[in-house]
Design brief:
- By secondary structure, the protein is an all-alpha fold.
- It is built from 22 helices and no strands.
- The protein has one domain: Growth Hormone, Chain: A.
Length: 449
């Protein structure tokens, strides 16, 4: 891991630190749901908007990243992203009502949505192709471990502090970071200014509509209103795609799909992210609902998996150069199949089985997601890396959201006839199909490293 860190420039390390702090915020709110529901007297479906709204705004902004990179000097762009996040966090800290927290989370989602594809594109562009594997392994360490660490951090803070202190933690850490690293920010991306296409930007609402429709299924179900939203969003997104294919300088260059190897690698990143985010949903439920641990203990029980993921991500980057993506994917998907298989037995087992299962699921992700991101972008010319990364991160987010919704629906459905523990186990059994699909998809990967 430390050898991989040394290969990154100081500026890349700065980006990683900022991304890590902002990434943690993505998965912290679920632990605070019961406290916020009690403090503001809101329902579970209302408090869920803290996550749903964050995800929708994040997904809407991700496709804007190629234009932002090409038109705004990196120093101003990065500082602007951090300022938006700080404003949102400060708003959430001082607000007297729940609506203010939602507004704060929407601003945080905008910032994170702009940062994720931006910092990955910058690191890819500033790293030679033969060194991208180890570098993106470190990126995977940051992205994956931050998602796993989020509930741990929030559990510790909420054990002794308030939800306002949770937001305050991120505000203080991030403002110290951004003040300390100003001298390290370099404009490493070459600007290629072009006109902002407002019509394309508005049409990105199609992405938001689809993600929103997916997210509300567990609470609102599928009805006529849902179908209307989904159909309209799909039509808008279809018009967006048609427009990009006609524009001389497209807002989002879809020609990336013409390059052999990009599409299967893109899908693999989504499938691996599905395994990671589903593990962060299922494991706390197992620990709290089945084995009756408190939120703090539940969060701490996620630490071994987070450490395992952190150790494996850089190693996976090096292995990508040595054995190629196809073999890595087969290792990763086999680990995930075994992990879900253990969870399928979890209702009749003890929490130690859960520790091993979570390690296998998150470790399997390390062998798939960032190696696939690296392989997908290596298939592209340099001028398309930002576009390829934007598409990867956006679709990965949609697949991840869909996975959480499917897990919620399955748990609720099974729990009507069996115990909660058995419902969680049966849900895990169904999710075995996700890594199996990834294993089948690995046959479409070129054998070259």
């Amino acid at each position: 891991m430390f050898k991989s860190l040394r290969q990154l420039t100081l500026f890349s390390l700065v980006l990683l630190f900022i991304a890590f702090v902002m990434s943690i915020s993505q998965s912290t709110m679920t632990t605070a749901y019961p406290i916020l529901m009690h403090s503001f007297n809101v329902s579970a479906s209302t408090v869920q908007w803290l996550t749903t709204g964050f995800m929708v705004t994040m997904t809407l902004v991700m496709p804007l990243s190629p234009w932002l990179l090409d038109n705004i000097p990196l120093r101003y762009l990065l500082n602007g992203i951090v300022i938006v996040f700080l404003i949102g966090t400060a708003w959430a800290i001082v607000t007297p009502n729940f609506t203010g927290i939602i507004i704060g989370r929407l601003l945080e989602g905008i910032a994170v949505g702009a940062l994720f594809p931006t910092f990955q594109s910058v690191i890819l562009e500033s790293t030679p192709k033969d060194r991208r594997g180890p570098s993106m392994g470190v990126v995977g360490l940051v992205m994956g471990s931050a998602l796993a660490v989020g509930p741990i951090v929030s559990g510790i803070i909420l054990q002794w502090g308030s939800w306002r202190q949770l937001f305050g933690f991120f505000f203080i850490v991030l403002i110290v970071l951004v003040l300390l690293i100003q001298k390290q920010i370099k404009n490493v991306h070459t600007l290629k200014p072009y006109r902002f296409d407002w019509l394309s930007a508005v049409m990105l609402l199609g992405f938001g509509g689809i993600l929103y429709s997916i997210s509300v299924i567990p609470t609102q179900g599928i009805n006529a209103q849902w179908w209307l939203m989904m159909v309209i969003s799909t039509i808008i997104l279809g018009i967006f795609v048609a427009r990009q294919l006609k524009l001389t300088t497209p807002f989002l260059n879809l020609s990336v799909f013409h390059y052999h190897g990009y599409l299967p690698a893109m899908i693999l990143t989504g499938l691996s992210y599905s395994g990671l985010i589903t593990a962060t949903v299922l494991m706390p439920l197992f620990y709290q609902k089945v084995f009756h641990f408190n939120p703090l203990a539940s969060g701490l029980l996620m630490v071994p998996a987070a450490i395992f993921l952190s150790l494996l991500n850089p190693k996976a980057g090096y292995l990508l150069q040595k054995i190629g993506l196809k073999r890595l994917v087969r290792i990763g998907t086999s680990m995930m199949v075994l992990g879900y298989g253990l969870l399928a037995l979890m209702g009749q087992a003890n929490f130690w089985v859960g520790l091993v299962a979570a390690m296998l699921l998150e470790g399997g992700n390390a062998f798939i997601m960032m190696p696939a991101v690296t392989a997908a972008n290596n298939a592209l010319p340099e001028d398309l890396v930002a576009h390829g990364t934007a598409i990867l991160t956006t679709l990965r987010q949609v697949i991840g959201a869909g996975s959480v919704v499917v897990a919620s629906i399955l748990i609720t459905s099974f729990n009507q006839n069996v115990s909660y523990g058995t419902a969680l186990s049966q849900t895990s059994a169904w999710f075995i199909f996700v890594p199996v699909l990834g294993l089948l998809l690995s046959t479409q990967i070129k054998t070259e490293k």
